[in-house]
Amino acid sequence: MKYDNDLFLRACRKEKTERTPIWIMRQAGRYLPEYRAIREKSDFKTMVKTPELASEVTIQPVDIIGVDAAIIFSDILVIPEAMGLDYQMVESVGPRFDKVIKNHSDIVALDVDHIEEKLQYVFDAVKLTKEKLNNRVPLIGFSGSPFTLMTYMIEGGGSKNFVKTKQFILNYRDEAHLLLDKITEAVIKYLSAKIEAGIDAFQIFDSWGGVLSKPHYLEFSLKYIERIVKEVKRINSEPGIVFSKGVHHSLKEIADAGADVISLDWTTQLSCAKETTGGRCALQGNLDPVTLYADDEVIKTEAKRILENFGKGNGHIFNLGHGILPSVDPAKAKLLVDFVKEESRKYHE
Amino acid sequence: MKYDNDLFLRACRKEKTERTPIWIMRQAGRYLPEYRAIREKSDFKTMVKTPELASEVTIQPVDIIGVDAAIIFSDILVIPEAMGLDYQMVESVGPRFDKVIKNHSDIVALDVDHIEEKLQYVFDAVKLTKEKLNNRVPLIGFSGSPFTLMTYMIEGGGSKNFVKTKQFILNYRDEAHLLLDKITEAVIKYLSAKIEAGIDAFQIFDSWGGVLSKPHYLEFSLKYIERIVKEVKRINSEPGIVFSKGVHHSLKEIADAGADVISLDWTTQLSCAKETTGGRCALQGNLDPVTLYADDEVIKTEAKRILENFGKGNGHIFNLGHGILPSVDPAKAKLLVDFVKEESRKYHE
After folding, report:
1. The domain over range B7-348 is classified in CATH as 3.20.20.210
2. Which among A171, A210, A293 has CB closest to B298?
């Protein structure tokens, strides 16, 4: 076997594992003092763009927390930037784009021809991380979904009600599809090159697909996720994970779109998702991230509830239902990982 | 018939109507210049506590927009205040409580014995509004759900991740239930007195039930909503509407809890909710509020999609999936109301 620990990859393919693998969304992040030590010396974007730093924080949770997979430290907004929209990461505010997409000519001006060269630093970070990991665990790569990336490109940053984005898709439907087309093309190039650089699986973060009604989600988000998954997998065998946060209404359609793994927030039960998708996909998740602020015994009880809800069998990757929060005590994350590693054995006998 | 227009009440009971009734959540609000004119002279809490002002803004959308029901202008936080937790409404921030619930003795200190006398101003506003409405349309009263009120009482205001509330229910389960018990008792008294004062239906706003996993939603939110609905309806025939925003996973359980009407945000399709609940409840909603920023023809297309999705038959109350946003043009709201009134006739032939 290629990896010392390939539980994560086997679970993605619903193959037999002796226990449930676990990793944590945003595991290379601010809750770790070791991450903050690096972050103190470099700003966020410098970390993203410096392979040495990105690979260092990518590996930290493998060493410190003992997760079963690493995920390359990066940012979903590298894609809009490579397409020509520069952004700043403003402390305690979030990303800010100087220029936003307002009309047809803004979309035409976006560049999708130089994705691979502009994002070479990501591929270098992947290669370096693979070397350092030395086959201990697999490495996950990721991208934002076209719809999610589009919201930042139109709103110019985070948003509460996504008024500009929704106005755009409602009033300028053709232009919205043109924009989504171009982002999709960029994402396909990006993920394909990332796989070439060495990632073992890819996750599509559709952080904002859940703000849409079902018909709009299918038309403006899932359609493009499907194209990415199918195109990337046409020439690669690496499993694709789809995380459309809040999208409870289209799990069957996400399975139809070819996702190998569906990642679920904490509001959809794994048992229910298993039924809806007819067990076609592996499932990832889905402990409420806030659980890690509870007492140790409560964390165990809640983790047990997730394991029980999925039940016996393969194809479950334990994770939080969303990113770990920055003020969580790393000891709590470690406790969760240790508990799941041990407790899950009985579901794989 | 008691009312010039009782379409809303008939729809709540799934009785035959000649068209679909419509009202708009937060219809007495900042998007109306007539509301802002009053708001300029009085702060929010003064408006809530002055029956003359509360009744005036309650009636505005009936006159200006032509909705089929009025909803008494008030605030869900009158309950925590009447229980002993004073709050300020801070401009462009939201509510701020000086004192919050931290432990058992804070809960014991909460007062539920003087709800009726402390909230007399609400009942006076209801009576005055009923006089002014002069039986044109029914009047809806409302309350926050115990869980939603609890989040404000623990967090001290709005919250992003509800860390304190979730810590409280996870680590201090018995105290959480004690607190929810007391709030529930207060809400039952409040809604019963509101019905006595003249409201024709009541809506429970569970704005934050959707941040919980299903097991926690059932234990910490729906259980108490059920107690309220059953107790209030034990002695009153007025229909009860339950709006648990984001709670896509427990529609059957909400129907089991005795809701006459389930109000849905825009992420759950009416057709799907109808199937899940076996058509037992009327359904309210569920146009994405941001749709009102679109071009006129797009608003009509999207409204039509909602009507078509519910399909032919009775028991649909048109509404937005959440409150109308403050920067919406009132002409757009009027356009929606006029369109639904006309277009919906074909679904009731």
Report:
1. yes
2. A171
